[in-house]
Amino acid sequence: MEKAVGSPSVSGSYPQKNAEILSSQYGINLFLAGLLLTFAWAVHAVGISKSHLLSYLITLMLIQLLWMLWYLGRSCTQRRLIRDKDTHAGARWLKCGITLFAVITLILDSFKIGYYIDFSNCLSPTEGIFPVTHAVHTILQVYFLWCHAKDIIQSFKTLERFGVIHSVFTNLLLWTNGVLTESKHQLNEHKERLITLGFGNITIVLDDHAPQCNCTTTTLCSIFSQGIYYLYPFNIEYHILASTMLYVLWKNIGRKVEHHQQHKTPFKFHGITVGMIFGLVVLTSTIAIVVVYLIQIGRSKIKSELALTMFYLHAIFVLALMCTAGIVALLIYRLEDRSLDNSKNPARKLDAELLVGTAAGSWLLSWGSILAIICAQAHPKYTWYNLPYSVLVIIEKYIQNLFIIESIHREQEKVNDDIKTLRIVTISRGSTLSLTPAYKEIYNGRAAPESGEVPCLLKGSVCGRESHGSAKADVGQEKSSITRSASGVSFYSGNSVTNNKRRILKNIAAFLFLCNLSLWIPPAFGCRPEYDNGLEEIVFGFEPWIIVVNLAMPFSIFYRMHSAASLFEVNCKT
After folding, report:
1. Averaged over 46-71, what is the pLDDT?
2. I need a surface site. Which of 150, 210, 240, 348 has the fewest CB within 10 A?
3. Distance between CA 343 and CA 348 in Å, rounded?
């Protein structure tokens, strides 16, 4: 009988599980085909041109546009139906962030359109169609994510799984295309910088995909070509954020959620002044370092060495501060006794996996630098600063990951400062019966007074005590007053300690948030000592090290932005 009763639910789960497996395999094959096409174009494979790659990407975007229009149309017809929502997915600050990146991506598309118009005589038509299609795709996708990122789809589940996973891997391919294009540009500049540092024995043919014709308007072409590469970091972040939000939507298809009210945790500047000040100092100094680095690097050997030394010293100082802040936060957590929230949450699980997974990119680069310093025969002075820098990168991300993952898994404190009801009482025939002990007495770990006094309810508006004489009543009132005063002092004392801990944690989260934004800026805008150091290329060889850097750097850049987003959430939650 038990097997008969349980069989319908078990058999009902098989089609959905198969649909999940089939859709994931479809997405992976879609991505691998695009990845090989991208690689073939990058290495100038015979018969593969950029127009083939762009045609493939345009086709994927058009398919996604059709699916999103169908989903939006079906949602409009079913507007009156109550749908389940994942309150943890698609936070407002995340939507605002992806909107900002999308706006800059639209500017990038307009630059590409202008670039195509100026070089239209020798460029394929697909290079003009691609930015137009991409702009439409960006606008509709941002609107879709604003309206439906929290949806838990319960109808047409099999079809929706394929539509969402198609969107996930389309964005990943667009991210890959952006990373490759930006990396090729960085590689050409890197070759010129190495020559000024005295590494002229490293030879490699510059990879140039420039149009083979003259520009109609030289000034505009220069603005478009240079501006495109400064905007690519925002385009890269946009696509990776979109793919993560869509992945959470895919994981939520067919999910059953418990209906409960989630407490909103808005961001507040109150109480985080210290963390913000120190963080803004780090942000300002980092921007100044990046500007000086980009100006000095490649000008001469002396200037390049000074730029690298300046970068390493600044980064060592910032990473040391971040390590200290993370250790203090973890020590505070060890002093607290709060349970972890282990409920099923795809968004939170993805955040934790992305933190550890993308940190591996910078860990790979750091270990490569450490090994190069140990094995190199000659060591220019500036390369020694690379050793503590690489070690601190490993330690800092290790500590920060622990802090963030524990923070997002900790249950929110349900204690409220303005507790109004201290005890539930029942007054009958002139006597008071206490049903529960005072909340502040539970909070401080002691039971109700044995003397039988009952504290006032709602600031003393209701008081009661059974008495047989006026003298005993007066004594009882004095004892009750003393008990309430002692309990109140203990409660506010404990609450003050808790508030101080929360204030410290919020300041640490705010400081780390701004530090991660600061450390995102240098690699995103071309300040990459892993390229310019030169020592790793000698030990590992130029091409092998450049391949490692080009594979690991995008993950390292994404880690900083994702960490900043997670720390913003931690600050709101603390």
Report:
1. 92
2. 210
3. 10
The Cα 261–Cα 258 span in angstroms is 10
Q: What is the pTM of this model?
A: 0.71
Query: What is the bridge-based pairing of β-strands 431-434 and 425-428?
Result: antiparallel
Q: At residue 24, does pLDDT exceed 80?
A: yes
The pLDDT of residue 13 is 59
Quote the tokens at residue 86.
């994942």
Beta bridge partners of 425: 434
Q: What's the rounded mean pLDDT across residues 516-525?
A: 89
Stretch 98-119: mean pLDDT, rounded? 90
CB atoms closer than 10 angstroms to residue 214? 11
Q: Which residues, other chains included, contact 67 with Cβ-Cβ below 8 Å and sequence gap of 6+?
A: 163, 166, 167
Can you tell me the distance from the alpha carbon of 40 to that of 51, in angstroms, rounded to the nearest whole number? 12
**Owner of token pair 């546009």:** 65
Please, are residues 355 and 559 in contact by the beta-carbon 8 Å criterion? yes
Q: Which residue has the higher pLDDT, 174 or 426?
A: 174
Q: Rounded distance, CA 229 to CA 236, Å? A: 11
- The 10 Å CB-count burial string (b at 16+, else e) for 275-306 is beebbeebbeebeebbebbeebbbeeeeebbb
**Higher local confidence (pLDDT), 207 or 453:** 207
Write out the H or E segment, with its range, that includes residue 427. Answer: strand 425-428
